[in-house]
Structure formats: structure tokens, C-alpha cells
């Protein structure tokens, strides 16, 4: 976590001059804060400025004149996204921490000031679960600080929507990315002396993709879409006029979205909803757009059935699915993750969405899917996966560790720490007076040896999956590599 | 009675305090209402409250006759069990105490009766119930009137009954089976019971002979027995923890679930000598707050009454143990790297299956699939002389607002939100039980049940109906 500290406070940056006033101001603020803190500790509000502070505040004032219009939204956005994930801030240097703390609520500052720098540094290391150390490559980006100037605003916005889960789900992210790229490509002009096919991919598209990756690691569907995009860019005739080429690219991307996702979804829903019979009970986990479509379509076809949704912390995606199904008039039952045995008892069909289908027939999906599939299989309930071929992957995985994503652990900390005496256990009464001394989980970074692991995906073994429904038909999990070849490599 | 505890949230500690001042009947009513309102819940608080109350009941009892005492305890016990049938620890403690009384009564009479050579005279039904089924099982159903008034299942009160008899065709066979298992208990009271009432027995033997004093002694001996039981409840965790080093080796990765003082204590004991990693699943939505508190602040002994001296236990992290908190959903993802799963039950059934916090079944099944051993730590007081037939009936459903807050009015209106509190875990998913008596295979638990409960006490309602 220490390596990729966002270069917000790096002094020497080549493109410094090109930063927007808002960014400049933010940087100035951060530096000012850091300097101040270094001299007299923790007093952010004070107007008395140090020798260096004078110049800074002057610059700040100057910037403020031109700044406000752009500054407002950006800072707000950054602030919002930081709220849930203060831990990422911690991962940065203490200086960045202080810089952030000024626009932030108290807890951050307190933490920064109380724990000495040295101890904070030593603690940081063991906050990563060793087994998954390869996945902690980079904390998710939630601010524009230090982004490349080449990143198109549409992609910037998209990145933050990714990192805050506003756009979540493999297909949704893929579509959103292609739409953002379309917009970005529209504003692209080929520099003189090179041609679009040679320049676009390496010099224009790569920074966009890198930026998206820094917000949240990209999904298999996005990877397939990017591969496809690169392929058609390379195949463009260098002599083609730029406008024409751009129009062609946009058209191709539209076609990709339409053919590989929109229509495919309809086809899969049409085929999967035949599996839902009258009087059956469909069990699903979290939320998948394609499962939602399938269920709604079956409902529209007049099939009478019941839906059980099992959900899990921290994303509670199933709640969205439950809301949408309930407004469609379906009979919905909603259970926490611990209710799986209860759900299995009455279920007659399990429908699952996918993050990606791996080439050894395993399903990569929201963490928790595997347990559900295992119990369904034990109870002889068919487990059916609905998955577009764009999510099929050439990768293989045996365990859940190599191929995964670690989300910020702060998401798992309950928002309102349980200060209200939950009379559930009898110690509550006695603890009342002690509670001030008692630590809560939100201080977990200060507690040595305590780690929180928030995985995004797990991998369901192929033997738990009865059938995979894709646009090429219903196939067994063993046929995944074949479909992958056909759909993603044969293009 | 709530007047006694105004200003404080009623809980086990307030109950125990009020127990000192209130009279027996008030305390009984208070405990019943606390149980009903779930202000005392979970096995250990229930067990402590029940044993303390019954101690008062016995102490306040004027009748010195064992039979009267048994009836009185049964009566109170039935009311407590009826108040909260799913807290089986209540019934277990009542049965244990009844066992103590019978023990003492037998001790009382045996020396005298031995010389009379009429042992069956005083308690014919009991011995019959113990002996007859072994001889001719088919008649077991009718003969021992004590145990199986199977014609009358006025059983709503105790959870044990419906499950025992719910499959009617099986009922006679089952009942006789029970008796077969427990035969030795009825025959030789001296040899069998571990811990429990053994010491009072020997003391009693030395002192008996005075006909006049005998009746008084019954009560005193019973009180001694109950106090021993209370002591057992207190030390049960450390007894279980003693075997920690036999089961945990260095560099292990151990998965546990929800917050349990027994498990915490077990791991702490091992942590003093060995370094390992604990992965803690948080049991959302019912126990995650308690779990977080345990992880961050360490455990605290569940009974908060007179042992304020009890050390506040440090969290495992302070002992250099790496603790990784995960949501329940990540258990499958990690199971392949876990060496052992340690669970704490709510109740253990006689066949080795158990009830535990919701999520335990998923964990146990995942462990089974990955061939990871599942170890269950349970005090004997959680061991219930019930065979599960209707597992659905055992599971309690809790507050749905813990899953979705009631503020989401429309959602709550239109969607069935279900929040099971317990999970049933089948015995085949468990590899080992560790109780305060040592380690046992799940298939051996019936034997421990037989050691601790008298067959005539298994159906608490039966006798009181007569």
C-alpha cells in the first residue's frame, strides 16, 4: 500500500503547469497543511501562518478567484467518496492525510495526530491479509489528484462512479466504459505526423484505461471489450480520414454494445425464463442484471412463481433487486446471508449471474455465491448461471485467492458504531459507563494484528453448476472454453 | 416485580441482584417475563438464571420430602420452559437439578432400604422405567407411567416434546431407546454421574443413620448439589480451554463464527503458548456487533453477577494473534486455507447435531466440502436430551429490522424479510465435540446425555400433569 501513494504531494511533476486551478489549489492546501502540521502539530483552523504559509495562502487566494466554479464539484465529489473509505487516505503519507483532513470530518485528523508517524507506518503493513497481498496493489482512486491530463472528463466521471459502486456489475461497467470511450474518441484529434490507428490506442486510450484500472480493477467483460476495440482500431486503414475513422469506431462500439450485451441479454432472458415453471421458487443471490431481466420476463409471461433473494454485506445489492422485483408485483422474500439454509429448503431453482466464466468451467461471481451453489447442489436444486459470452474468460482458477479483488475494508465497518446498548447480551448494562473507553471497530487501524478482509468475488466449482445459459444456447460448464473461443477470440 | 429494577435495562445481572431481595414467587415470575421478552437469552445466561432461581426455590421450600421437592422444581421448571421453549438450557438445568434431588433421595433411602431389601418400594416407577424397557421393549410405552404418558401430548411447553413425539409411529421405539441408554443410570446411581452430586453423596453416606436428621439433609444436600452445578457453569469455559493445546498447533489458521466466550477462552489459552491465525466470521445481522466488540475489546465473562473480580479478557490481537475479520459470505473463498473450524453451539442434541447461530450450517457444510475438521466447543449444560426430528421447529426467527430497517416502509410492506437466528447443523458435519468432560465424537454424545439426565425427567411436563 505504501508504494502507490497518489502523487498529490510530489513536488516535481512535469505537467504541473497544466493542472487546473482547482487542482493547484488543492495541492497548495495540502502542502500548507503538511508544513503547518510539521511545525506545530494539529491546528488546522488557525489563520496565523508560518513563513511558508504566507506565500501559499496568497497563491490560494489568487487561485480562489478563478477557481470556485470548477473547484466546488470536484471537491465535493472527492469528499463524498472519501467518506466511506477513510482508510485509503491512511494509506497515503501522513502529509496527504492532513491535506485531506481539512476538507474532511474530524476522525481523520484525530487519527493522524494521535498515532505517531512511525507507529502508523509500521502498522500499515500488517493491515493487509498476507494471503491476498498480491491483490493490494493500489488503493482505489477517489480523487482527481495526480491523474494524467489526458484522461477525458467523461472517463474521469466514470472512474469515480466505478470506485463508488454507482456503476456496478460486469455488463453495466462494460457498457458504461464503451459509452465513455465513445465520447472521448469524439474529442480526439490525431496529432500531425502520425495516424489514428497508430496513435489512438497507445497514446490516447491507454491513459483512459489506466485511469479506470486505478479506480477499480477492470472486469473480464471490459477486458474483452477493450481487446475488441484495440483490434478494430488497428484494422482501420491509416489513410482513412479522421472523422470517418472516428465515426466508424463509434458505430462499431455501438454495435458491440447492441450485439454482445443488449440483444444478448434479451436472448438469454428469453431462454432462461423457460426454466421458471409455474409454482416454482427461484432463489438468487445479490443482484445480476440478467437474472433480473429473466425474472421480470417470466413474470411478464404470466408464470406464477416466488423469488427468494439472499443478500450479503457490504454492498446489499440484493436489496435493489428486491425493490425492483417488488415494484413489478412479484412475491419476494429477502434474507440475509445467514438465511441460506432457510432459503434452500423452499427453493426449486437457483439462478445466478456471473462476473466472469472461467475456462475451467468455474464461475467467478460476487463473494458468497459459491456457498449458495454448494448448498443448492447438495439439496439437488438445479443451479443455472446466466452469462453473456462477453464475460467468458480465457483464464483458469483453482482457488479463490489468485484471481480476486480486495475492496476497501472500511466498507465492512458498520456506519453507526453500536453505541446504543443492544440489550441482546447481558453485558450491555454494565458496559454503559465503560463504553467510552471501549474501542470500536472503526479504530481497527490502531489495533495491531487486527485485519479486515473484504473480498469481492469467489469462485464456484464447476460441479455445482448444472447449466450455463449464454447467447449460444444452454451449455454445461465444461463448454465454456469453446464458447469463449467462438465469441471472444474468433472475432 | 419490574419495580425492583427500574432505571436499568433488565438483564441477567439485574435479575440476579433482585433475586437476593425478592421472594421466590416474584423471582419466578420475573424470570419468566425476562425469558419471554428475551432480556435473558443465550444458553449461559439462561442456565445461570435458572440454576440460581432453583437454588432459591429449594432453599425456600418448607417440604423436606424429596418427592415434594421434585414436584416443586418440576412445577417451576415447566413454567420456565414454557416461557421460552427454545432456550433449552433452561430445561437442561431443571433436569440436572431434578437429577440431583433424585440422587440425594436415593442415597437417603438406599442405605435404609438396602437393609429392608425393598428397594422398589419407594420409587417403583423409576426403577421400572429404567429396567423394564430393556426386558421387553414393546411394553415400554405403557408401563413406565412416569416417562411416557404418550397418550397425552400436552407438550406445547417444552420444545423437546414435540420433536420427540412428532413422528408418532416412531415414538414408542424412541422412548424405549432412551430408556435403554439410561438403564445404568437408574440402577447404579453411585457410579455414573461425573462431577455433579458425587461429593455430597459420599459426605451423605458418612453422616446418614439419623432418621430425624435425614429429611433436613435432603434439602441441604440438594442445595450443595445445585451450588456445584452453578460452580460448574462458572468454570466450564476454563475446563474446555484446558484441552486447547491438544487441538491447536502452531501456524494454524482457525475459522470461528460469532462471539462466544467459550471459543475466545479456548483460543486465548492456546495463544499463550502458540502462534496461529484466527479468521473470524461476523455473523451478520444478529451477532455482528457482539462479534466486533469481542474482536476489538476481547471477551468478558457472560455472567456479570458477583465476580466483578473476573479479569476482563484481553482481545486475541493483544496476545499477538492475527485476527482477520470477514463477512460470512467470504467463508467459502477462504476455506481452502483453513485448518480448523471452531464453532460454539446454542444447543447440542443427543444425536450429536447442534443448533448454532445462523450461518453455522453454511460454514460447517463448506468445511465438509473442503475436508476441514469442525470442532464444537460446548459445556455439558448445553447438551439437551432431545433427538431432533422436526428441525424446522427448532429454529427461531428474529427481528427482521436487523436485516432491513423499518424505515424502508414500502420494502418491508411488500417483501417478506426473514431473519433466522439459529441454524441446524447435522451431526455428520461435526468432527469433534469438546465439552468440559473432554473430547467426544458426535456419536458418543448420547452417552453423556444418559449420564446427566434421569429418564424420568426427560419429559418435564409428564409428571406435573399427573
From TrEMBL, chain A:
Asked if the keyword Protein biosynthesis belongs to this entry, the reply reads yes
Membrane spanning stretches: none
List, alphabetically, the InterPro entries matched. IF-2B-related, IF_2B-like_C, NagB/RpiA_transferase-like
| A single cellular component GO annotation | cytosol
Q: Name one GO molecular function term.
A: translation initiation factor activity
Origin: domain of life: Eukaryota
What is the predominant subcellular site recorded for this chain? cytoplasm
Q: Which UniProt keywords apply?
A: Cytoplasm, Initiation factor, Protein biosynthesis
Q: Where is this region: Disordered?
A: 1-124, 414-437
* Compositionally biased region (Low complexity): 66-89
Q: Name one Pfam family in it.
A: IF-2B
The record's subcellular location field reads: Cytoplasm, Cytosol
State the similarity comment. Answer: Belongs to the eIF-2B alpha/beta/delta subunits family.
Its subunit composition reads: Component of the translation initiation factor 2B (eIF2B) complex which is a heterodecamer of two sets of five different subunits: alpha, beta, gamma, delta and epsilon. Subunits alpha, beta and delta comprise a regulatory subcomplex and subunits epsilon and gamma comprise a catalytic subcomplex. Within the complex, the hexameric regulatory complex resides at the center, with the two heterodimeric catalytic subcomplexes bound on opposite sides.
What protein does this entry describe?
A: Translation initiation factor eIF2B subunit delta
Question: Where does this protein come from, organism-wise?
Answer: Acrodontium crateriforme
UniProtKB/TrEMBL annotation, chain B:
Quaternary structure, from the entry: Component of the translation initiation factor 2B (eIF2B) complex which is a heterodecamer of two sets of five different subunits: alpha, beta, gamma, delta and epsilon. Subunits alpha, beta and delta comprise a regulatory subcomplex and subunits epsilon and gamma comprise a catalytic subcomplex. Within the complex, the hexameric regulatory complex resides at the center, with the two heterodimeric catalytic subcomplexes bound on opposite sides.
The keyword Cytoplasm appears for this protein: yes
Where composition is biased (Polar residues), the residues are 115-128, 157-167
Location relative to the cell:
Cytoplasm, Cytosol
Q: What Pfam families does UniProt report for this protein, alphabetically?
A: IF-2B
Q: Give positions of region: Disordered.
A: 107-167
Protein name in UniProt: Translation initiation factor eIF2B subunit beta
- Superkingdom is Eukaryota
Parts forming coiled coils: none
Give the keywords, sorted: Cytoplasm, Initiation factor, Protein biosynthesis
Any one of the GO CC terms: cytosol
InterPro entries, sorted: eIF2B_beta_subunit, IF-2B-related, IF_2B-like_C, NagB/RpiA_transferase-like
Q: Which family does it belong to?
A: Belongs to the eIF-2B alpha/beta/delta subunits family.
The GO terms this record gives for MF are:
guanyl-nucleotide exchange factor activity; translation initiation factor activity
Source organism of this protein record: Acrodontium crateriforme
Keyword Cell membrane recorded: no
